Amino acid sequence: MPLNKEIQPGDNDELTRERLQATFDTQQMAAVLWDSDLARKRRELAKKVDKLTVLHDSKDMAFMTREEKLSENARKVVQMFAHMADIVEDPSDYAEVFHLSCNAIGHEGHPLAVHFVMFIPALQAQADDEQKEKWLMPALSLQLIGTYAQTELGHGTNLRALETTATFDKATDEFVIHTPTVTALKWWPGNLGKSSNHAIVSANLIIDGKAYGHHNFMVQIRDENTHKPLKGITVGDIGPKMAYNASDNGFLGFDHHRIPRRNMLMRHAKVDKNGAYTKPSHAKIGYSAMVHVRSVMIGHQGMFLGAASTIAIRYSLVRRQGEIKEGSGEVKILDYQTQQHRLFPQLARAYVFMFAGKEVRELYQKVLNDMEKGETTLLADLHALTSGLKSVVTHLCGAGMEQCRMACGGHGYSRASGIPEIWGVAVGGCTYEGENMVMLLQLARYLMKAVKEAKKGRSLGRLVDYLLLPQDKHSLIGRVPQGEYGPHLAAFEHIARRQIFKVADELAKLQDRGMSKEIAWQKKAVELQRAARLHTRFYLAACFHRKVQSVVDGRIREALADLYHLHLNYELLDMVNYALEDAYLKADQVDFIREDMYRLLETIRPSAISLVDAFEFTDRELRSVLGRRDGHVYENLYKWAKESELNRADVRQADLQTV
Amino acid sequence: MPLNKEIQPGDNDELTRERLQATFDTQQMAAVLWDSDLARKRRELAKKVDKLTVLHDSKDMAFMTREEKLSENARKVVQMFAHMADIVEDPSDYAEVFHLSCNAIGHEGHPLAVHFVMFIPALQAQADDEQKEKWLMPALSLQLIGTYAQTELGHGTNLRALETTATFDKATDEFVIHTPTVTALKWWPGNLGKSSNHAIVSANLIIDGKAYGHHNFMVQIRDENTHKPLKGITVGDIGPKMAYNASDNGFLGFDHHRIPRRNMLMRHAKVDKNGAYTKPSHAKIGYSAMVHVRSVMIGHQGMFLGAASTIAIRYSLVRRQGEIKEGSGEVKILDYQTQQHRLFPQLARAYVFMFAGKEVRELYQKVLNDMEKGETTLLADLHALTSGLKSVVTHLCGAGMEQCRMACGGHGYSRASGIPEIWGVAVGGCTYEGENMVMLLQLARYLMKAVKEAKKGRSLGRLVDYLLLPQDKHSLIGRVPQGEYGPHLAAFEHIARRQIFKVADELAKLQDRGMSKEIAWQKKAVELQRAARLHTRFYLAACFHRKVQSVVDGRIREALADLYHLHLNYELLDMVNYALEDAYLKADQVDFIREDMYRLLETIRPSAISLVDAFEFTDRELRSVLGRRDGHVYENLYKWAKESELNRADVRQADLQTV
């Protein structure tokens, strides 16, 4: 049995020969990437989906209108829930259900996505017991389909400026929900436009003329039977987007719409019938939901980049173009150093982003457990970490996936490659759940606090312990025996620490000169972001290091170490100016890093296909003609094209009429 | 009369106040960007298009299926030609007609695009007089609609490997055009799928069993009356792409399809009825068409980035989010340093790319004139220059436009922003007309030749003269009076020269150690690309310098100089490691560059809107709700959304049935 488990009879010979070079067991590597339990579950559920034709794409979504996409995925999601118990081992296991959804539905959205991912969790977290009694069962049985309506046309990031109002009317014991301006329209919530009949609406609570800030309210928006919008409610779809076009992101406006007082979610804050307001026990409570989404996002982004890498690397082993030596025959494009340099660093990033996702989810679980005990100290650490990771990871994923797409040449540009759609989905993450630039500044704020503590010899949290350590003057890269990468990781640490202290000093200097704290912050905002990025990239490198150390199997560890070392070299070169500025690194050391990087590209080359096969994406999940497991690309591109909507008739009637 | 000419009554006050701060005349700046004659023509044709409702979008293309897009743009292009004489001053002026097309049709393609841009020019350049007589008039009068079919499913960049054959049959005086494999299918040609009835087909010429390489053949593919594919011909659309979906890029296969011998385009190479082959007078002849497209591309890419900058900067002056000082009110997002740092460098690039486009088109014209006289020495220079520019400019445009889109937050992700579509169009340029990675290596080859000459004290061409100059040891940045930027430009030159010589030395060393030239090249491919990029970025900076110097009006020159200095600082920081490695720059100088960059962001801030207004894009052309000249963004986003295809009915029938 070959080590690469993706080999099947009838495959493109080129790929089989590549796969026979595997130095490690791809299923064992999958267990490292996904955890062994989940890796097994993914394989098993994929087999079951294969047999259930009701869960198969009726045609490629790229050939569909938005109407058709919505219908297709509504059909799928209903079928998915109908068969859930037969397919997954544990329907309450979020990760397992997610992977079922990747196979059956994909990433363009479906009418119940926000219902399950945000509406029900928000009910669970924010409704009191009586409210749960009332709404949770109907929601679970899909009588009541809900969305979560927070963002408005005029405001996203700055929640305090949301304009929708919920004014308490003591006389009738009701809230009056109102949209005072066009900019106050709820805008963007998923599944709001057409699918949902209820929404949890964020609105500024007003009692006796006093504003209490935004709180959440359960509002029915459409009739349960006719599905028509209720009186006083304006609702619709916000129109086509870059991706996610099977989701009906919507707008929502209220004309003095009345709801019972008890429709305010009252687990934490409360309003009684006399209009007396009780504030939540502590302010950070709302926080954890967003942190949760961010912690899940990191791993998903890694998965998206992994999918794009899989497509590009497999295709680069099928595609031959040009000769390295004239007359010696065309070579696989992955044999070019330039192609390796384009793709392998993205592959390494996909790996480390998945590892970081796992670490962050574990930390989140720990924070949750702590919070149950009333302990919230780690929450600020987690918030800072996820803010930085969310921003750095989504940015690098977007840019990396574009590299993967372009590495596929012209065919990467076709929707048949599958990359344009997942790229569109992935880059949405740069904006939602906290805009990246704002997130970096939130981490920077934490880092500046950490500097203050460090100067007093104290650490603000485990993740910034390294700020207490002294700086080395010179790097040991290239001065220690070949194969030792400790100095590389130390360089990440050095660079991050230097920039963090440097910008802290600069801020202090500006304030010493009489500038206000806010203006100084504004003048150093870009440098603060740089500090946040460098801190995060150090975290990522260290996370990769921890993962490699934790692997027992020698062959897996060796393959992983090659990727890790490539990552160290590549990322270090990308930020090397920071280490050159204070002469921590010398020119010969930079050359050493470069040469070692080029060497590693060659080392990784024979394992490339096995490293991507280890993600174990099914063809059904990848939805890519270029990235097919069997490597039969060209004949299937032709087959795919023939199914395109424009080929339904040989001659377009319009061509005869107008031209 | 205010200096900013875009002010109109009824505009959003925020924008009017911004525009009143203009320090220069926006129409004068437009004359610098477009040339005064073209700037005037653009304004005049836009007014005429405003009055011609047949040239207006019937609805936003984002709401259309591909079928509808094709029909819409077929309608438009017919109307455009019908009214051409009333709208443009000179229908033979490519630039004027292009801008008409930007207003009336946009960038998603139309059924006659390749017909005019490639088919007719190819006929003009490659058909002999008798052939022109036969085909040119029918083509100009649209009896015959043609495309240019070169790329195949299996081969793009490596033209020598194209598989389609044209075998001469002496007995019948015909060529037999044949597609021997699936990978030999013609794939990608624009307008091939549905619209064209003729194609100029690139095929490997075979006479008496001997292959003569690829030549061009005129092939009728569809019946002129029924528009049905002819017997022996398989043709169709290749399916949806990231963008350009109003273009029917197609596939085309031949089953031993016969055409008369005289359908080979015979201006240069010839085959007589006895099968005797005459080769073209010189090999570089086919070259110039591709160089032409590339030289036009540079300016267009600058225009795309300019459009994205216009959208993002205008929107950033309408959008308010967050407070710099608590309680002082929400600020325009362009007031944040982070937003300025995200957008202004893109704006500066848009300017310099447009300037470079103009320089390159002028050089192309000079080369053409020279070629008429049989002089081809400059052609290699031009080819090298356009190869580098094409690659660097398309890459930076793609990344820059993504920054512009993300700078618009969530609404940037909506198709209403207009950026996703033009981004999709622009990034296509990374691949077509020569894949970027390959293009960089072509420039690198030229640079390595130039080093050899330089070592003998000779210059290979004007653009590499600087290789003959000695290297300075230390930069004068920050050591000369403030406001002098000569040392910055010198740093670009220094960095490029150092990397070019460094990689040349490394190549030589590998060969000295016995490595073959080809393998050494392959081992240094990434470093060679770096050399090509640095050379090109030096060219761009120098081009910006030349432009600023050439401006007479003091106020225009001052505004332009600020952008130029920002460009110098920003780009230099992006490549600063190369200058730190050999201690050409010191840490304090890098800090100086940073501080100066942040200072310039503040300087440019009040002029930002006038700098984008100077592009004089009409709303019709921008097709962006966020980028509207009048700044009335929110009410129009709402209006736009209501027109979305999913809002045709309040309730989707499918929602009632499936959920």
- CATH 4th-level superfamily of the domain at 128-278 in chain A: Butyryl-CoA Dehydrogenase, subunit A, domain 2
Query: What number is the mean pLDDT of chain A?
Result: 95
* Secondary structure tally: strands of chain A: 11
Assign an overall shape of chain A. globular
So what's the CATH class of the domain at 128-278 in chain A? Answer: Mainly Beta
User: What's the oligomerization state?
Assistant: homodimer
| Share of helical residues of chain A | 40-55%
Label the CATH architecture of the domain at 128-278 in chain A: Beta Barrel
Q: Which chains have the largest interface?
A: A-B, 117 and 117 residues
**Number of helical stretches of at least 4 residues of chain A:** 23
Biggest sheet of chain A, open or closed, and with what strands and sense? 6 strands, mixed
Active site (chains A, B): 433
Protein name (chains A, B): Acyl-coenzyme A oxidase
Pfam family, one (chains A, B): ACOX
Domain Acyl-coenzyme A oxidase N-terminal (chains A, B): 25-145
